[in-house]
Design goal:
Elements: E1 6-10, E2 13-20, E3 23-30, H1 41-44, E4 51-56, H2 69-73, H3 80-92, E5 99-104, H4 106-117, E6 122-128, E7 145-147, E8 156-158, H5 159-166, E9 176-179, H6 200-217, E10 221-225, H7 232-235, H8 237-250, H9 259-264, E11 267-274, E12 277-280
Helix pairs in contact: 3-4
Length: 291
C-alpha cells in the first residue's frame, strides 16, 4: 500500500490520510494509542478487491502534524474528542457515508463514541480488542492521562473524562462485531508489576470479560482469535479481514458471520448477544436449543 501522503487541515491540525474510493460502504480504520494508519495494511491487503477504505493518523502520530496550540495548552480530553476529529476529517475529504468503522484498542473507544454520537452515519462497526476505560481505576499504577503519540504534539486522553463519556450506553443499535484477543494472552506479560494488585490471571479475566460486555453493550457478536495478542490486526490479519468483509457486506443490515470461514482464518465466533442473554456458537454456527 502507498504511504499516507495526502493531508487536510482540520481544526488547526494537519491530518494525514489515505482514501481509496470503491464499493460502498467505505471502511474506516482507527488505530490504537500512538499508532499509524499504515498498521492496517495487512488487513486491507486481504480484503476483496474494489472495497472503499480510509486510514489516517491522529494528531502527533505518524505523518500528521501536532495538535493546535489551544488543545496542547488545555486539559486532557475525553475520547469523544477523537471521534469529533475523525468526523471532521471524513466530512472535509468528502468520504461518503455511512461508514464501517474498525477500531483497535483506544481506537475501539473512539469508534464506540462515534457510533453513540452519530449512529445514522455508521453502517457497522468492528471493535478490535478495544480498551476498557475502567481498568486503570483498579491498578496501583493508575494512569488517568495517556499521551496519544509524540510527546508535546499529541492529544492527551483523560481516562476519567472518557469513563464519564462511556456511560450511558448506546441509545441506537449499530451492527457490531467485537474481536477480542486470545484467552490467556496476558500471562506472558514481562512486567506484571505494572498491573498490581491484579494478578495476570485476574487481568486476563478482566480483559476478556470487558470484550464480552462490549458485545452485550451493542447486542453484537464476540469473535475470539486462537492465538493473537493485543495486536490482533498484526497477529491475525486474515481473521480481522474476514470479519470486516462480513460487516461491510451487510451494508447496515444484520451481519452474517460464517463460522467455517472464521475458523479457517484463526478464530471462533463464541457468542452473540441477544437481549439479556447470549447465544452460543458451535463449529457450524449458532447453537439451536437442545444441541
Amino acid at each position: 500500500m502507498t504511504e499516507l501522503h495526502e493531508s487536510y487541515l482540520v481544526n488547526g491540525i494537519q491530518l494525514a490520510y489515505r482514501y481509496v474510493p470503491g464499493d460502498a460502504p467505505c471502511i474506516v480504520f482507527v488505530s490504537g494509542l500512538g499508532g499509524s494508519g499504515e498498521e492496517w495494511d495487512e488487513v486491507i491487503d486481504r480484503l476483496p478487491d474494489g472495497l472503499s477504505t480510509f486510514v489516517y493518523d491522529r494528531a502527533g502520530c505518524g505523518s500528521s502534524g501536532p495538535v493546535d496550540e489551544v488543545t496542547a495548552a488545555g486539559e486532557a480530553l475525553p475520547i469523544q474528542w477523537g471521534a469529533e476529529q475523525l468526523l471532521a476529517l471524513l466530512t472535509a475529504v468528502s468520504v461518503p457515508g455511512p461508514w464501517v468503522l474498525v477500531g483497535h484498542s483506544i481506537g475501539g473507544l473512539i469508534v464506540d463514541a462515534f457510533s453513540r454520537l452519530w449512529p445514522d452515519q455508521v453502517s457497522g462497526q468492528v471493535l478490535v480488542d478495544a480498551s476498557d476505560p475502567l481498568l486503570h481505576t483498579a491498578l496501583d499504577d493508575d494512569k488517568p492521562v495517556l499521551v496519544d503519540g509524540r510527546d508535546g504534539e499529541a492529544w492527551r486522553i483523560s481516562y476519567p473524562a472518557t469513563l464519564a463519556n462511556f456511560e450511558p450506553g448506546p441509545q441506537h443499535q449499530v451492527e457490531t462485531v467485537v474481536i477480542g484477543s486470545a484467552i490467556w494472552r496476558w500471562l506472558p506479560v514481562k512486567e506484571p508489576e505494572k498491573y498490581r494488585p491484579l494478578s495476570l490471571i485476574e487481568l486476563d479475566h478482566w480483559w476478556h470479560r470487558h470484550q464480552l460486555q462490549l458485545a452485550r453493550r451493542w447486542s453484537g457478536h464476540l469473535v475470539v482469535p486462537h492465538f493473537a495478542g493485543h495486536l490482533v490486526h498484526k497477529d491475525s490479519p486474515e481473521l480481522v479481514a474476514e470479519v470486516v468483509r462480513s460487516v461491510a457486506a451487510a451494508k447496515g443490515g444484520a451481519v452474517q458471520l460464517e463460522q467455517p470461514a472464521i475458523l479457517r482464518t484463526g478464530g471462533t465466533v463464541r457468542v452473540s448477544a441477544r437481549g439479556d442473554g447470549f447465544v452460543e456458537w458451535n463449529a457450524k454456527g449458532p447453537r439451536n436449543d437442545g444441541e
